[in-house]
Every structure is written in C-alpha cells, then in structure tokens.
Prior knowledge:
Layout: E1 8-11, H1 15-26, E2 29-34, E3 49-55, E4 61-66, E5 81-85, H2 88-99, E6 103-110, E7 116-121, E8 127-132
Parallel strand pairs: 1-4, 5-8
Antiparallel strand pairs: 2-3, 3-4, 6-7, 7-8
Protein name: PhnB protein
Domain Glyoxalase/fosfomycin resistance/dioxygenase: 6-130
InterPro entries: Glyas_Bleomycin-R_OHBP_Dase, Glyas_Fos-R_dOase_dom, PhnB-like
Amino acid sequence: MASRLNPYLNFPGNAREAIEFYRQVFGGSLRMSTFGEFGNAAPGTEDQIMHAMLDTDRGFTLMVSDMPPGMEHQPGNNISISLSGDDADELRGYWERLSEGGAVAMPLEKQMWGDEFGMCVDRFGIQWMVDIMPKQG
C-alpha cells in the first residue's frame, strides 16, 4: 500500500454524530470502534468513539475520534480541509451539505483567478474550503 495523508479530527464527545454527518455528505463505508469495545473504558465513555474511519468511493478517507478523559479539546483555526477538482456538481453538493447548519465565511462564487471558491465552517466547527476549477480542454 502506498503512503497516504489523511485528516484525523478529534471531538469532545460528539465524534459519532460528526462522522455520521460526513458519511451523509460524502457517502462511503464507515467503520467505528468505541472505547468500551477495547475494555477498561473510563465511566461514561464506553460508547464514545475511540477511532472511526470513513472511506468514500471517490477515494477520500476521513478519520475521527472522541477525546479521551484527561485530554483537553482545543479546536483551532490553523487548519482547513480543502476539496477541489473540476466536477462542479459534485463539489457544489458537498458545499451545500457541509455549510448547512454551519457558517459561510466566504460564499462559493467565481473568484478573480477563475475558479469558484468558498469557505465555510460546518456545524461541528470544522473549516472547509471548496475550489471548483474550470474543466480543461
């Protein structure tokens, strides 16, 4: 298997809700493991997500987990997940679903460099950028 770079997102107890939302957005196959499945879980965390992985038909992989007890959840503004390509209908669909219930920082619209581009924060606080490039040739 070739090396891959995948986003891995951490949540303060709502990772299951978040990854199920992303499965609705992107489709694909979802695998989840809870802290309880591996025994010795802290009380109240048995059903929280220790690791979940979403693999989509388009080749996207997204991983998530809940923060275990004792680890502080510190969401930041130093990372965004970027979706790009020239399949305008597909990317607009992702944009619509990701921005629903969230906040649009920059509307998805034609930019001076020729692409359609937008930025939003989804309802889980994750920043997304969508870039629709003109089809070549």
